[in-house]
């Protein structure tokens, strides 16, 4: 995996491992960096939001919108990004650029109640019947 014997590796100050799958395009300091002011969504893992097995109706991207809080650039490694939302919530993992969906600035974002999962006992009409009663 590193292209040398363990005895040789111990003698060196730094050892870089070879990628198991070669990455297309630039990496590390040559890679294009996402600016801190952009809005992003992250790619959900199967069953991450709803739990259980993945279904066709599951979302592909996170319902919340985040901005980039921090990034880590290292030699011969993909850039790692940490994200945060407006309520200071941050997922406990880092992301590479391919796992982030950049939302253009001229995009009109939907109201937050549309993006949130519905609470227990709330009807499918998102509480519109409550609006009619008032």
Radius of gyration from the alpha-carbon trace, in angstroms: 21 Å
- Number of DSSP helices? 3
Strand portion: 5-15%
Strands, total number = 4
User: Which residues sit in consecutive blocks of at least 5 with pLDDT less than 50?
Assistant: 118-124, 126-134
**H-E order:** HEEEEHH
Q: How many angstroms does the end-to-end distance come to?
A: 67 Å
* Quaternary status: single chain
Largest sheet, in brief, is: 4 strands, antiparallel
SSE class: alpha+beta
Based on Cα principal axes, name the global outline: elongated
Mean pLDDT: 79
Give me the side-by-side strand order of the main sheet: 3-2-1-4
Helix content: 10-25%
Report what the structure shows:
- It is built from three helices and four strands, in the order H-E-E-E-E-H-H.
- With 134 residues, it is an alpha+beta fold.
- It has a domain at 26-107.
- Strands 3-2-1-4 form a four-stranded antiparallel β-sheet, with no helix packed on it.
- Residues 118-124 and 126-134 have low confidence and may be disordered.
- Residues 114-134 are annotated as: Disordered.
């Amino acid at each position: 995996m590193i292209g040398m014997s363990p005895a040789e590796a111990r003698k060196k100050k730094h050892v870089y491992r070879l990628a198991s799958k070669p990455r297309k395009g630039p990496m590390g300091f040559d890679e294009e960096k996402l600016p801190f002011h952009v809005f992003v969504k992250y790619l959900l893992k199967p069953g991450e939001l709803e739990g259980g097995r993945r279904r066709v109706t599951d979302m592909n991207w996170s319902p919340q919108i985040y901005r980039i809080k921090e990034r880590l650039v290292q030699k011969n490694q993909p850039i790692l990004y940490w994200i945060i939302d407006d309520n200071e919530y941050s997922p406990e993992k880092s992301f590479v650029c391919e796992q982030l969906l950049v939302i253009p600035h001229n995009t009109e974002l939907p109201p937050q109640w549309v993006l949130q999962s519905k609470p227990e006992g709330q009807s499918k009409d998102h509480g519109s019947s409550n609006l009619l009663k008032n």
